[in-house]
Design a protein that fits this description.
92 residues, mainly alpha, 4 helices, elongated
């Protein structure tokens, strides 16, 4: 599958190709992290989701997707609280 065929539906922003690819990979991490969180390990799932957030944020900022940044920030705050709880007080 070539990059041109993926871009046929404007999945990759023409001005921000690298950031678009980071967004796609970051969203994949975010979704995969959610599945890991539900079915396997809370700690590992949160780590995947946080990596996904970090990879997606630059694109959302550049194209001014403030709604996505806001909702993902709320998720990140909740995840940071949970990871802190796991690190300092143990447990799931």
């Amino acid at each position: 599958m070539s990059l041109e065929s993926i871009n046929s539906d404007k999945l990759i922003h023409p001005k921000y190709r690298f950031l678009s690819i980071l967004r796609i990979i970051g969203n994949s991490f975010f979704i995969f992290g959610y599945a890991v969180l539900l079915f396997n390990s809370v700690q590992l799932g949160i780590v995947f989701r946080m990596i996904g957030n970090l990879m997606s944020f630059p694109y959302f900022y550049k194209v001014k997707m403030w709604d996505m940044m806001t909702i993902r920030s709320f998720f990140a705050i909740i995840e940071i609280i949970k990871i802190t709880q796991i690190i300092f007080w143990g447990g799931n």
